[in-house]
Specification:
Number of strands: 9
Order of helices and strands: EHEHEHHHHHEHHEHEHEEHHHHHEHH
Number of helices: 18
Strand order of the largest sheet: 3-2-1-4-5-6-7
Structural class: alpha/beta
InterPro entries: Tubulin/FtsZ_GTPase_sf
Number of domains: 2
CATH superfamily of the largest domain: Tubulin/FtsZ, GTPase domain
Strand content: 5-15%
């Protein structure tokens, strides 16, 4: 069973994994892979972006585990924690999607034992790091300072988690890195991990497999800016991140990448012109940014990388840069390239139809034969997996519906699907279903009839599995026969 290990490094890593999980829930297929293992690396254990992504992944995993392995459909892709990959948990490896940075609730000065250094070493440290760098607490990340991150993250290579990862890495497995190039954690962590994974003398288990494995990465260039709060009289001013340095950091990192990332098989670039400054939160729970189109398109890089066969990724390194068909502010599916559109459009449309009908209309179908046959009312109230599904779809913190709404809030919006639209005929921005006196198009009663027809043919005894299969079939027919989306 081939595995894909995804290292989401820093806040951008978490946000892209959130988008990727939405694609997996919608049924987007990943080729050349049986199991996906996300590993989030972020020293800020209270980071809002990270924690909601973790909750999303946990919810997805519980839903998938109930449905079991299937070749296609909603939640069909196996997403597992590192600890569960071998079918057991190790006492030193928590059953979690996150690397545990325990013991990092100290300043950088304390982390490097500054007071114990020799005079010459102190002089070198003072040359490389500002007093602000040395004083900053590590439990909220590196505040956009990759020079700090590169020192702290070196500890990861000696961790139980990395050794457990390497122990379970087999021939045919792949690795994909997600990071920003303009921050602290991602800019430092990605090159460090790649360098060590490719080192045949790293001392890691299965270093031969790692050295020859297919590895890809997306490095996200600046796509947002941050408000710069007044510093006068503000004791927390030094904690804020200065987004004016993003471009300078990007140029420096690109220069390094040019000479030091040749061991990758494929490298993806993406970015956008920042226009709407976000609130400046250096870390913890307050750092929870609204979903962005860039993160959705970055998730597509993972899908694209896995589409390549091993033979296609041999030889010279592949470089990819994402571009829209036109520089539009409100993005529809028609603004994406044909390949991108074909990969995600129909699946996201189907999943939105499912979300809208299951959440808004199914609870009122109490007299419908399918509702009675599945005892759906009782199941929705009492079965844990139905509650998990409701959270995945409608949690205001991390759910699918909230994610679609967030994508519409930035300067460059993703408006291909309108989650607030109640008319099924008008939910897809670039394809309206025409209706007339004789044909109402796609209405709740039409969908109910389709669900009823599928329920008659369905023999699955498990209520949750049966409901998911019915809605998979109904939404497929809705897209193909009513929407006729091409």
């Amino acid at each position: 069973m081939a595995k894909l290990f995804i290292f989401g490094i820093g806040g951008t890593g978490s946000r892209v994994i959130r988008a990727f999980t939405m694609l997996m829930a919608a049924g987007v297929k990943i080729q050349n892979c049986d199991k996906i293992v996300p590993i989030i690396i972020d020293p800020d254990s209270q980071n809002g972006d990270m924690n909601r992504t973790v909750e999303l992944l946990k919810t997805y995993k519980r839903i998938h585990n109930h449905l079991g392995s299937r070749p296609e459909g909603f939640f069909h892709q196996d997403i597992s924690t590192l600890a569960s990959v071998a079918g057991r948990t190790d006492g030193n490896i928590p059953d979690s999607f996150v690397y545990n940075f325990s013991g990092k609730n100290k300043s950088f000065r304390e982390f490097i034992n500054y007071t114990q250094l020799s005079v010459d070493s102190k002089a070198l440290v003072d040359l490389l790091f500002t007093d602000e760098n040395l004083s900053n607490s590590l439990d909220v990340g590196f505040r956009g300072s990759p020079n700090v991150g590169s020192v702290v993250l070196n500890d990861i290579m000696n961790s139980d988690l990395i050794r457990y990862f390497a122990t379970n890495f087999q021939q045919g497995d792949r690795v994909f890195f997600i990071s920003s190039i303009f921050g602290g954690t991602g800019a430092a962590g990605f090159p460090l991990l790649l360098k060590n994974f490719r080192d045949p003398n790293s001392g890691l288990p299965n270093s031969g497999y790692l050295n020859h494995a297919l590895m890809g990465a997306i490095t996200v260039l600046p796509y947002f800016s941050l408000e710069q709060p007044a510093t006068d009289g503000n004791p927390e001013a030094q904690d804020f991140i200065d987004s004016n340095t993003f471009i300078t950091k990007t140029k420096a990192a690109l220069s390094y990448y040019q000479n030091n990332l040749q061991s990758l098989n494929a490298l993806y670039y993406i970015g956008d012109t920042p226009e709407k400054p976000l609130e400046n939160h250096p870390g913890r729970a307050a750092q929870q940014n609204e979903a962005h189109l860039i993160e959705l398109l970055s998730a597509l890089a993972i899908v694209d990388f896995m589409d390549y066969s091993p033979d296609q990724l041999q030889g010279e390194m592949h470089f990819h840069e994402y571009g829209l068909k036109e520089d539009a502010k409100n993005i529809h599916f028609s603004h994406l390239g044909t390949e991108s559109k074909d990969k995600i459009a129909r699946d996201l449309i189907r999943f939105n139809y499912f979300d809208q009908y299951f959440t808004e209309h199914a609870p009122q179908d109490t007299d419908a034969p399918y509702f009675k046959a599945t005892n759906l009312g009782s199941a929705m109230r009492n079965e844990a997996v139905f509650k998990e599904l409701q959270q995945f779809l409608r949690s205001p913190q991390y759910g699918f519906h909230a994610w679609l709404k967030e994508l519409r809030q930035n300067k460059r919006t993703f408006e291909a699907i309108n989650p607030e639209e109640k008319d099924f005929n008008r939910m897809v921005a670039d394809k309206t279903i025409e209706s007339s006196f004789f044909d109402s198009g796609l209405k709740p009663k039409t969908i109910l009839k389709e669900i009823g027809n599928l329920n008659i043919k369905e023999t699955e005894p498990d209520t949750f599995k049966r409901v998911i299969k019915i809605f998979e079939g109904a939404t497929k027919n809705m897209v193909e026969e009513k929407l006729k989306y091409q």
